[in-house]
Design goal:
CATH superfamily: Vaccinia Virus protein VP39
Strand order of the largest sheet: 1-4-3-2-5-6-8-7
CATH architecture: 3-Layer(aba) Sandwich
Number of domains: 1
Largest sheet: 8 strands, mixed
Helix content: 25-40%
Structural class: alpha/beta
Shape: globular
Strand content: 15-25%
Length: 226
């Protein structure tokens, strides 16, 4: 993407009503007064809140919003030029139950109060295979602690990835923590029991992976102990 296109998208994001772009200071100080108030001030309803972490172009957030109008969806990514597409589509289609937050995922607990979130989707994250990159892996212990904090007691996390490594790493971690694994499969398109939102929604990158015959894995878990 050219720099002119990026600048254009950044400027459009600034005027999109469904995009929030706080500074780090605003995140730490909650000066936008969003923490604990997403239903009241942003979505203006009391419907369940679902996050998509590392939302990229926002395909999952937008499609889930279409599929489940009774829920609120918020795509989170630091790359605003990417989720511009999802934000623009949502506005064009008058989807009032989806928005986008531009921030680092490690700051997620700065934006949401304890028990404020109902579900979290992690779609095709960078598996950060090298050991030195473990701290950036979105299902490491530090991130899991953040998710547990902001999720409601019965909240769930969805992990959809083309990385067998990421799938296996997360599965092993969850088993070691004795957490509830509600669903796990290493080939979602080879299993008739896969939930519809896993197979009926495909991201731009997922389609590329499928063309290369890569298996897509899916894992759903909660923080209740077995």
């Amino acid at each position: 993407m050219g720099s002119k296109n990026k600048l254009k998208r950044f400027k459009e994001n600034e005027i999109f009503s469904n995009v929030v772009q706080p500074t780090r200071d605003e995140a730490f100080n909650n000066s936008l007064n969003l923490k604990g108030n997403w239903n009241k001030t942003f979505f203006k309803n009391e419907n369940p809140i679902v996050l998509e972490l590392g939302c990229g172009k926002g395909e999952y957030s937008v499609n889930l919003a279409q599929m489940y109008p009774e829920k609120n969806f918020l795509g989170i990514d630091i790359k605003g030029a990417r989720f511009w597409r999802g934000a623009k589509t949502a506005l064009e289609e008058n989807l009032n139950n989806v928005g986008f937050l531009r921030t680092q995922i490690e700051l997620v607990d700065c934006f949401f109060e304890e028990n404020e979130v109902d579900e979290i989707w992690i779609t095709f994250p960078d598996p950060q295979i090298k050991y030195k990159r473990t701290k950036h892996r979105l299902t490491n212990l530090e991130f899991l602690d953040k998710y547990k904090k902001i999720l409601k007691p019965n909240g769930v996390v969805h992990l959809k990835t083309d990385s067998e490594f990421m799938h296996g790493y997360t599965l092993g971690l969850l088993q070691g923590l004795n957490l509830t694994i509600e669903y796990a499969h290493h080939d979602v398109y080879g299993n008739e029991y896969t939930p519809k939102e896993v197979t009926q929604i495909q991201t731009f990158y997922e389609k590329q992976y499928l063309e290369k015959n890569k298996k897509i894995t899916y894992l759903r878990f909660s923080f209740t102990s077995l």
